[in-house]
Amino acid sequence: MENTYQIKSELYKSLGKLFYAVAICDGSVYLKEWDKVEEMVKKYWRKVDDFKDNSGTALADQIEVVFDWLLEYEKTSDECFEEFREFYEKNPQVFTKKIKSLIKKTTKAIANSLLKKNKSEKKILKRIDLLLK
Which pTM was predicted? Predict the structure, then answer.
């Protein structure tokens, strides 16, 4: 159980990095992108499983915590994408069809939260699609 809990915790942290990578890929994170992350966590990610931390907070909330932390420490899109990729390759068993589908849905929603996708967003969405095949 502890191992499963730890892997789930790392999954949600990695997702925070990936979603940040999508938001920052054009050089700025806009409020609409942050709002979309919050919406997707509440609407979908909290329902993926019922894992909670010691204080009773859903592990999926770590997506927002990591995203927020990255806003302060300004990591690059490439750095965050690569950290997600490394987790993905080390833990393929965590990435069910449902999780992959929800990742794609969330990343597209973040990219579409502004008027239209730009070149940088299209490029990272393609990288995500290729990785999650």
Answer: 0.94
Q: How far is CA 80 from CA 28, 49, 53, 114, in A?
A: 14, 24, 24, 21
Tens-place pLDDT, residues 4-61: 889 999 999 999 999 999 999 999 999 999 999 999 999 999 999 888 888 888 999 9
The rounded distance, in Å, linking the Cα atoms of 46 and 49 is 7
> Which residues on adjacent β-strands are paired with residue 52?
58
Tokens of 96: 């069910």
Contact status, residue 54 vs residue 104, Cβ threshold 8 Å:
no
Cα 67 versus chain centre, distance? 8
Domain map of the chain by residue range? Answer: 2-131
- 90 phi and psi, to 5 degrees? -80, -20
Show Cβ contacts of residue 121 under 8 Å, excluding neighbours closer than 6 positions.
Answer: 22, 25, 26, 111
Query: How far, CA to CA in Å, does 130 sit from each of 84, 103, 123?
Result: 13, 13, 11
Q: Would you state the pLDDT for residue 56?
A: 85
Instruction: Identify residue 83 by its one-letter amino acid code.
Output: E
